[in-house]
Amino acid sequence: MKIIYFISLFILISIYNSSVNAQRCANCLKENQSCSKDLNFGSCESGTFCPHKSQVCTSYIKEGEKCDKDFNYCIPGKRCLEDVDGIYRCIDHSFSNFGEECTLDSDCSTYQLSCIKGVCKLITNQTCNSDDGNCQYNEYCKCPSTGCYCTPIKTEGESCSSTDKCLPGLFCISSICTKFATPMLGIGSPCTFSVECNFNDGLYCSNRICQEFVEPKSTSCTPNTTSTNQCSEYQSCSCSDGTCYQTSPYPPEEIQLVINNNLKQCAYDNGCALGNYLNYISSESCVSKNCRKLICEKESQDYVKQKGDDCGRDAFELDLYCNSSIKITQSIASILIILLITFSLIF
């Protein structure tokens, strides 16, 4: 679990450094045009990608269609795997956690699980291995020096190491699972975390005081420049119209914590484990079936008015899941990982 946090931190820092002020505009390539993994050469447009084999912008293979097992050209979220008939097709994968229904071993979310009699179960001599996807929805994987095992999620007043170890609605503060008192704090009130302030009134905790956030006005800018003072903090210069737009919700701490906790509550109420598995957003996953609206609402918090900055790839991936044309700065997978890391960084 710690590994994914460090990877996420790297992604978060990379995205932040590349988008806060200056914006590099992509050279969008059409299908069948020559491409390269070198981003300086160009980037394939929405719905296509640049395979190592041909280095020509190629359309993804759609779900259910036959594929070559040696080349995973499947549409995002799918993988070239054997189906129940032994034919390699682009299919869903890694969507079932411990105790959830499955048909193929590839349906199970981690390598420690196998599909046994229609249910994902731990393989003999395997443990939860720091992955909560290997535990029940009301448990988490604890790994002391003696080995890993599943243990119940912490309740209010119990000791904790991070918020994701506490029941929904609780936050790990001073190593104790704590529920914030209501009503939430008003403007001018002393605070420690943004979740203490009344976010419904647009308040967040800044300099230990609940304050109202006012989004900076959009100003003109010049894309593809090394200038670092064109746009305000958390803004980026749009490639489409040379205007500074907000590129991420601010304050991200407050918005992400609240929305992520709502998703956590929905998953818990529906008996869905929130493991760090490969295909979290699969339409077949428990959390996706029961909490898709919340997941898509979480994506919309990273709404960006920019156009053409990523050749439409992020909007394409979001549309696959939420049937939306919203353009975002990160892919769905990146956002979900970033939201997971928020808890570990803050608490």
From TrEMBL:
<dbReference type="InterPro" id="IPR052326">
    <property type="entry name" value="Diff-Dev_Assoc_Protein"/>
</dbReference>
<protein>
    <recommendedName>
        <fullName>Dickkopf N-terminal cysteine-rich domain-containing protein</fullName>
    </recommendedName>
</protein>
<feature type="signal peptide">
    <location>
        <begin position="1"/>
        <end position="22"/>
    </location>
</feature>
<keyword id="KW-0732">Signal</keyword>
